[in-house]
Amino acid sequence: MESPFLNEIRQLPSPNSSFASSYAFMIQINKLAKKYKYAEGYSVNPLDLTIEEGAVFGLLGPNGAGKTTLISMLSSLLKPTSGSFTIDGLNYREHKNELKQLIGIVPQEYALYPSLTAYENLSYFGSMYGLQGNSLKNKILDHIEILGLSKFAHTKIVNFSGGMKRRINLIASILHRPKVLFLDEPTVGVDVQSKNVIMEYLRQLNAEGTTILYTSHHLNEAEQFCTRVAIIDQGSIVCKGTPKTLIAQQEGTKNLEDVFLAHTGKALRDHA
Amino acid sequence: MHKLWASTYKEFLLLVRDFGGLAILFLMPLLLVITITLVQNDTFKTLRETKITILLVDNDHGKVSKNIQENLKNSPLFEVQMQASEASVKELVQTGTYQLGIVIPENLSKDLNLKVAENVEGILEKFGAEEERIPLVKSKLEPKEIKLYFDPATQFAFRNSIKSGIDQMVSKIETQTIYKAFQEELTDNPSEDIFDTEPFLLFKEIVPSDGEKAIIPNSTQHNIPAWTLFAIFFIILPLSINMVKEKNQGTFVRLRTHPVSYATFLGGKTLVFLAVALVQFALMLLVGIYLFPLIGLPKLDVSGKLHLLFFVAFFVGLAAVGLGLLLGTIAKTQEQSAPFGATFVVILAALGGVWVPVFAMPKFMQVLSKISPMNWGLNAFYDVFLRNVGITELLPEIALLFLFFVVTVVLSVIYNERKNAV
């Protein structure tokens, strides 16, 4: 028997239909900046950025460029030093809880309870988004099925492989069907099969209307996946546009990695 | 409400999945209370039943030293072992082989008899020869010293109680010698009892009660409340470690992106760990009631006051959980929370009067003890266990414990807001 949740997904309008809200941009960032206490300079210099609804926006940059800091500010984890932003027209200062309901965050680390099963983890995190009862149960089972983990629903996370954990990590962030999904290196350390399943599912989510803000060091993956990218270095955006435009604009570059190196240089970016 | 329930269920699952932690959480407090009660009960037994060996050097070889020896031998506390010289006693006690040595000086009997006879004669002459008054010649006898050697490792209270016991015994011998001297002076018949030498002043211990039932305090009635309280407060360790773990494994960071308040997050932990505290308490009571009598310890008497005991335990549990939540909120690593938590509980216990009664502390510490939640909890438990009070008399301590919980939770929320909130 087909789950009602799969029907629900199919019935969702595409990003180009009337699904779009009255706001032209899903994310509007205005002079947003972050300077950590005791740090000499800004981790994120005052920056402006807009991300259209339904976009897959890639935020690319070397280690320490400010990607995670920016995502942390947008996902309510870090207090901005100055500036502001809105998500779906909601200002982060005035609509903190509504904004949290709109977004989903897939952190780089496996933010799961190792001694709980996949189902128990998802049930807990889903409940924290206000989901409950059969609706929550069906959503968990459907997502687990889509991402190929049905057999392991009642297995403890501690026994999962890296790829399996990544998939559960993703499901925990999308059970409440967020309008915006923040992905911080969602495929780091996973096998090719898991990576393929994850990327396919993210494409499906995007096709169903979810706006995605994505960071990764896999530039080839980003080139394939993102509708627009911004390269950030030392807290500032150094270029932005569609991957094709950026490659065309930068002389002597064949792919996004060439563009990246052209803008950020080849020097190592080790930092502690 | 649903989020609170989900948080509580998650905490419950995390707890029951950690078998080792669960066993430690419930078994260690039981082990603690059994060990402490056995040790303390055995200390009383040692003083009552198991005799302490006294090394005795008799340089007197007279009636008084014989009397001392007889008294010591007949005492339920001591067993006498004769030694030839003071030097050997000194060495054996100094090295801790024995805890106590007594050296009776030379000519003790002779000089004591002389001294007493001299005084008795003086008194009798004062009363019997008013007209031809002979001036009393002051004795040239020096006071005699009975030397006591103590193992340096023995505790002050032990030394004091032994000194007091020996002092009483020597005083009694001295008094009896005086009576005997009077008797010899006043009658020619040594078998005639002129004086009743039995003590006239006696002590009788009255246990305060409300008229219905007097509870005779024993080591169990004292130890169960004190060490149960100590064990309940130790809950701050697993609780704070649980919170630090959540921070380190990233689940807490994920939660901060969810539309859920920190109070709800703390609420789930409060309910589960409060339940743990109450189960711990119930187990302690069961051990006191059913296990203690089987291992030769006094039985815990909870008749008619079970509801009050759980009432107190509920608020003691809340105070302990509140402290754990605050510690878990502030600590960043387990290396911070575990040693600090353990040490802090011991300090609170010391301040609270778990080891040394508050009245026996220096004034400054007595003032400090008033701000220890363990002191409020211990008083409330003693009120129920030993003073037979009702719920009204408990309210001041209960109010303080609840206030402590509220303050610690509010501080935790404020700290978290200041530290993390956008």
Automatic annotation (TrEMBL), chain A:
This chain's source organism reads Pricia antarctica
Q: Which UniProt keywords apply?
A: ATP-binding, Nucleotide-binding
What is the protein name for this chain? ABC-2 type transport system ATP-binding protein
What range(s) does the ABC transporter domain occupy?
A: 27-259
What are the GO MF terms of this UniProt record? ATP binding; ATP hydrolysis activity
Name the InterPro entries for this protein: AAA+_ATPase (IPR003593), ABC_transporter-like_ATP-bd (IPR003439), ABC_transporter-like_CS (IPR017871), P-loop_NTPase (IPR027417)
Instruction: Spell out the SMART domains in the cross-references.
Output: AAA (SM00382)
The taxonomic lineage of its organism, from the top, reads: Bacteria, Pseudomonadati, Bacteroidota, Flavobacteriia, Flavobacteriales
- The keyword Nucleotide-binding appears for this protein: yes
- TM ranges are none
From TrEMBL, chain B:
State the compartments where it is located. Cell membrane
| One Pfam match | ABC2_membrane_3
By sequence similarity, the record places it as follows: Belongs to the ABC-2 integral membrane protein family.
Ordered alphabetically, the record's keywords are: Cell membrane, Membrane, Transmembrane, Transmembrane helix, Transport
Spell out where the chain crosses the membrane: 12-39, 224-244, 271-295, 307-328, 340-360, 394-415
Regarding the membrane, this protein is recorded as: Multi-pass membrane protein
What molecular function does GO assign, one term? Answer: ABC-type transporter activity
Checking InterPro entries in the record gives: ABC-2_transporter_component, ABC2_TM, ABC2_TM_bact-type
Q: Which domain of life is it from?
A: Bacteria
* Record GO cellular component, one term: plasma membrane
Know the name of this protein? ABC-2 type transport system permease protein
Q: Does the keyword Hydrolase apply?
A: no
Keyword Membrane assigned: yes
Question: Which positions fall inside the ABC transmembrane type-2 domain?
Answer: 183-419
